[in-house]
């Protein structure tokens, strides 16, 4: 029986008579107040079948509670000129009775089944077929090819080497500037050594600007490549 069980749930039971004689049947359950069976008894002709509707009444479902409800379909060959069904079952001997037992199973639909049902109920999207058929145009490529990438990588390496070279030169200039400052303190301010210090200091400024510019160029190229 599939849930939810807030309303009557009906399951059909098909009974077939494979013999060449008429068969009487009767459906029993361990929970008669919870189920309504129509028809609950009858006669099946040879080679025929009958549909029995089993209706489960609404109840509060507890998934932790195991179902103990069972059904039993009892059958016996119908005697000739049958008139009273109750008398048939009362007079039937135990070795003349046949039965099949069924256990009830309650199943609640999970969330995935609900989502699938919702998706299945949605109409399928309609494609616009009025456009001209043919291969879709390829979008313009925004990525660089291998040749340009290699050129940029080599250019970046060259700039990095140039930056390292300029950095070393700038370091040597700073060391030379410090040495000249020490000499300048020991000499007079108007001496040729002090003049040379000012000249070297003014010459080191453009080199420092070149180093800073090269660092920025290398930084932006490196981000572009990566």
Automatic annotation (TrEMBL):
One of its GO terms (biological process) is neuron projection development. It comes from the Eukaryota. Keywords: Acetylation, Cell junction, Cell membrane, Coiled coil, Disulfide bond, Endoplasmic reticulum, Membrane, Phosphoprotein, Tight junction, Transmembrane, Transmembrane helix. Residues 114-143 are annotated as: Disordered. It is a single-pass type IV membrane protein. It holds the Pfam family Motile_Sperm. It is found in: Cell junction, Tight junction; Cell membrane; Endoplasmic reticulum membrane. SUPFAM superfamilies: PapD-like (SSF49354). Residues 1-107 form the MSP domain. The keyword Cell inner membrane does not apply. Residues 149-176 form a coiled coil. GO terms for cellular component: bicellular tight junction; endoplasmic reticulum membrane; plasma membrane. The chain crosses the membrane at residues 205-225. GO terms for molecular function: FFAT motif binding. Belongs to the VAMP-associated protein (VAP) (TC 9.B.17) family. Endoplasmic reticulum (ER)-anchored protein that mediates the formation of contact sites between the ER and endosomes via interaction with FFAT motif-containing proteins such as STARD3 or WDR44. STARD3-VAPA interaction enables cholesterol transfer from the ER to endosomes. Via interaction with WDR44 participates in neosynthesized protein export. In addition, recruited to the plasma membrane through OSBPL3 binding. The OSBPL3-VAPA complex stimulates RRAS signaling which in turn attenuates integrin beta-1 (ITGB1) activation at the cell surface. With OSBPL3, may regulate ER morphology. PANTHER family: VESICLE-ASSOCIATED MEMBRANE PROTEIN-ASSOCIATED PROTEIN, VESICLE-ASSOCIATED MEMBRANE PROTEIN-ASSOCIATED PROTEIN A. This is Vesicle-associated membrane protein-associated protein A. It comes from Glareola pratincola. The gene is Vapa.
């Amino acid at each position: 029986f599939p849930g939810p069980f807030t309303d009557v749930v009906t399951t059909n039971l098909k009974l077939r008579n494979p013999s060449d004689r008429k068969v009487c049947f009767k459906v029993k359950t361990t929970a008669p107040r919870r189920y309504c069976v129509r028809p609950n008894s009858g006669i099946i002709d040879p080679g025929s079948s009958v549909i029995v509707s089993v209706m489960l009444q609404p109840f509060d479902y507890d998934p932790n509670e195991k179902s103990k409800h069972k059904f039993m379909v009892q059958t016996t060959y119908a005697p000739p000129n049958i008139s009273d069904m109750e008398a048939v079952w009362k007079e039937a001997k135990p070795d003349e009775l046949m039965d099949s037992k069924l256990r009830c199973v309650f199943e609640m639909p999970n969330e995935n089944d609900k989502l699938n049902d919702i998706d299945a109920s949605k109409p399928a999207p309609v494609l616009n077929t009025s456009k001209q058929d043919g291969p879709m145009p390829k979008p313009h490529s925004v990525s660089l090819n291998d040749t340009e990438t290699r050129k940029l990588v080599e250019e970046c390496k060259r700039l990095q080497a140039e930056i390292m070279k300029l950095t070393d030169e700038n370091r040597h200039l700073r060391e030379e500037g410090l040495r000249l400052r020490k000499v300048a303190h020991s000499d007079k301010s108007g001496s040729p050594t002090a003049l040379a210090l000012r000249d070297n200091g003014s010459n080191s400024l453009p080199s420092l600007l070149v180093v800073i510019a090269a660092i920025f160029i290398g930084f932006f190229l490196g981000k572009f490549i990566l």
